[in-house]
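hey
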């Protein structure tokens, strides 16, 4: 009976080793893009993306209400090239810094994580009449490991969903800022109109 248990254990171990070896051979590179149209001008959207201090307004990744133990520190420029943000939270530590900034058109930035390789990302802003399309892209490579190859199939899909949710928050923020006021205009003329027949 013991030898059957040993054979079963050996077979199970062999299967694990086979899939671990196969996982090491699967490419760990990833690339994905999330895109959303926003009713707003490129200038307003660019201002939110180009200043890392504005990211908590819309980014789920840097929202203290959603991320446990989030602590942020802003370094370098306040906005544009060389603006930087360091963070510590339940996920670990990391740093983001803007590497290229073209006003109202494009922003490129890099992200360093404590536990995985650097990720390269960009925002492309394109005006289309009354709306502006924001395309948010990222690419990089997952850490080496026997099972990261399998995770690499899921990671882009998960991150794209996360990006879309943040873009939706950006859309809500921008469109709320641009919403017309419902208060009566201070310059409205409330004088009574006197019929011509009653005028002196």
């Amino acid at each position: 009976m013991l030898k059957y248990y040993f054979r079963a254990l050996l077979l199970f171990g062999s299967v694990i080793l086979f899939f671990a070896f196969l996982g090491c051979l699967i490419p760990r590179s990833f690339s994905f893009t999330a895109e959303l149209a926003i009713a707003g001008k490129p200038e307003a959207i660019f201002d939110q993306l180009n200043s890392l201090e504005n990211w908590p307004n819309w980014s789920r990744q840097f929202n203290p209400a959603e991320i446990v133990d989030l602590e942020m520190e802003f370094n370098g420029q306040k906005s544009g090239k060389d603006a930087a943000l360091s963070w510590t939270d339940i996920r670990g530590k990391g740093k983001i810094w803007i590497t290229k900034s073209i006003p109202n058109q494009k922003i490129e930035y890099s992200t360093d994580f404590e536990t995985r390789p650097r990720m390269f990302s960009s925002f492309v802003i394109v005006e289309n009449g009354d709306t502006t399309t924001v395309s948010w892209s990222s690419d990089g490579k997952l850490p080496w490991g026997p099972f990261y190859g399998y995770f690499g199939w899921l990671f882009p899909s998960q991150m794209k969903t996360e990006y879309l949710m943040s873009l939706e928050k950006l859309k809500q923020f921008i469109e709320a800022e641009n919403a017309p006021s419902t208060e009566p205009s201070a310059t409205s003329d409330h004088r009574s109109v006197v019929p011509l027949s009653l005028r002196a």
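Residues 185-200 have pLDDT under 50 and may be disordered. Strands lie at 29-38, 71-76, 83-89, 92-102, 106-113, 119-128, 131-141.
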